[in-house]
Backbone:
């Protein structure tokens, strides 16, 4: 086992942060480049939707299974495969001659992200000694989060300085460095208890077909209206998701153990996650486009415009978590989404000629304060509501729910708001649709706050109704915006010798 502060610890942390940081950076770097990509590749709004959703689709479908593959075949091995896969897909993205090719390459990127993201955390949990594991996870979470936070600025700078293609090509040398360090310093670990039936490939396939079919139907509805092909594909998507639920009830080693939803607190927290992150998904998709196409910001200026959200999150998330720990998550999770809604209402009132300091910044700050108050208590509530043996799965489920919500919002809301065809290239048309979309997004976020007030309880750690001694199977996690801390079961697994 590795101890904190040693040379080996620093290299393992460097490798895992660099690997996961590439994926986190890519999730935020693309949005700011969308107008430039659309103009260069002659992409419609639907094309821009798929450039974002192609990645999210495969990531959300496969992220739950990524950790299982590492447990069975070796965490370092799967992590390396994920990095190499992600780098190869990034190269394809950077060389894509058309929007369709870029969408396909983005979907391949999502596969790599689903392998390397859970693998990076699993390596830390399995490699560090139990006493140092929480500290290592905290460092991983914070440093990886910074990579995602600087994405809009980095993306804008690369687009302004050279080409949108660099936002993908820059991943290749970073991936090479991550592979070299991983091969040299990261030990291999696996879970000896992971049996041959532990990989739910059928569940992952049904999830991908279901989300893909529904997303395609929702996006194309905005472009073409209802039709026989659209209804057929959408129906296949719905049937696939229903088949996934039926499969998970029956399969021996399900990707998603449905019994985890017997916790009303866990179900309620994920319902709030779905609604709020649907609001966030469409906001981050449209806002940077609006800043460039209507307010005439450069890509780098558009990336910098949202930087206050990141600053507020970094400065205040820990305090928001401490507040929720002291008074319970119900009030922060109710007020936070209302703050997000208030910020979105202010942003919906933007007009051509508005200034940043007088008009854009107030909405961004209110939005950022609401987001800060929401995320840490929500993360902690999800983790604390699940049974201890499902701590890792709970984090994965919440991750998949948040990404799936954003994907569906990006698929459906632009069509409702009238943002179809090449509307993003017409400032007047886009401004009108943006206002409608932001008001819808504000209503979603406010609805998430109402759901939290109605269904979230403050006794998340079982404190209000303590179980008999020795029977408490819950854990109250620190309220941080990051991965779950290692459980006792993780520690037991990590101390087993590698096979």
Residues:
């Amino acid at each position: 086992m590795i101890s904190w502060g040693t040379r080996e610890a620093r290299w393992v942390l460097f490798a895992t942060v660099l690997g996961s940081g590439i994926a986190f950076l890519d999730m935020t770097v693309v949005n700011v480049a969308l107008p430039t990509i659309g103009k260069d590749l002659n992409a419609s709004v639907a094309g821009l939707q798929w450039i974002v959703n192609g990645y999210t689709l495969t990531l959300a479908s496969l992220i739950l299974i990524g950790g299982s593959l590492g447990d069975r075949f070796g965490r370092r091995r799967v992590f390396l495969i994920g990095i190499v896969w992600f780098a190869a897909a990034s190269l394809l993205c950077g060389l894509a001659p058309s929007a369709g090719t870029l969408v396909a390459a983005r979907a391949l990127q999502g596969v790599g992200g689903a392998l390397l993201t859970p693998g990076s955390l699993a390596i830390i949990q399995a490699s560090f000694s139990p006493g140092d594991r929480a500290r290592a996870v905290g460092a991983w979470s914070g440093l990886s989060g910074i990579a995602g936070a600087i994405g809009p600025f980095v993306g804008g700078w690369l687009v302004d300085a050279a080409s949108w293609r660099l936002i993908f090509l820059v991943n290749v040398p970073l991936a090479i460095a991550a592979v070299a360090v991983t091969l040299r310093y990261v030990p291999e670990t696996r879970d000896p208890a992971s049996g041959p039936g532990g990989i739910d490939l059928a569940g992952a396939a049904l999830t991908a077909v279901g989300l893909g079919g529904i997303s395609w139907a929702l996006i194309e509805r905005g472009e073409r209206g209802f039709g026989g092909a659209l209804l057929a594909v959408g129906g296949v998507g719905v049937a696939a998701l229903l088949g996934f639920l039926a499969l998970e009830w029956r399969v021996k080693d399900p990707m998603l153990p449905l019994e985890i939803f017997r916790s009303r607190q866990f179900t309620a927290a994920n319902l709030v996650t779905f609604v709020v992150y649907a609001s966030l998904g469409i906001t981050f998709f449209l806002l940077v486009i609006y800043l460039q196409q209507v307010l005439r910001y450069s890509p780098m200026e558009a990336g910098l415009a949202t930087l206050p959200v990141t600053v507020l999150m970094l400065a205040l998330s820990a305090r928001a978590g401490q507040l929720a720990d002291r008074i319970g998550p119900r009030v922060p999770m109710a007020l936070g989404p209302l703050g997000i809604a208030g910020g979105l209402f202010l942003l919906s009132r933007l007009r051509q000629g508005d200034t940043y300091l007088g008009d854009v910044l107030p909405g961004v700050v209110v939005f950022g304060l609401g987001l800060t108050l929401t995320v840490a208590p929500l993360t902690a509530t999800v983790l604390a509501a699940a049974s201890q043996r499902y701590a890792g799965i709970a984090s994965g489920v919440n991750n998949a729910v948040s990404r799936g919500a954003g994907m569906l919002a990006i698929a459906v809301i632009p069509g409702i708001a009238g943002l179809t065809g090449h509307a993003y290239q017409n400032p007047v048309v886009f401004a009108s649709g943006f206002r409608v979309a932001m008001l819808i997004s504000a209503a979603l976020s406010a609805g998430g706050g109402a759901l939290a007030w109605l269904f979230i309880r403050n006794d998340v750690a079982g404190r209000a109704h303590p179980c008999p001694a020795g029977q408490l199977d819950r854990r109250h996690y620190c309220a941080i915006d990051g991965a779950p801390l290692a459980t006792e079961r993780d520690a037991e697994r990590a101390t087993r010798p590698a096979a």
User: Anything to note?
Assistant: The longest helix spans residues 264-293.
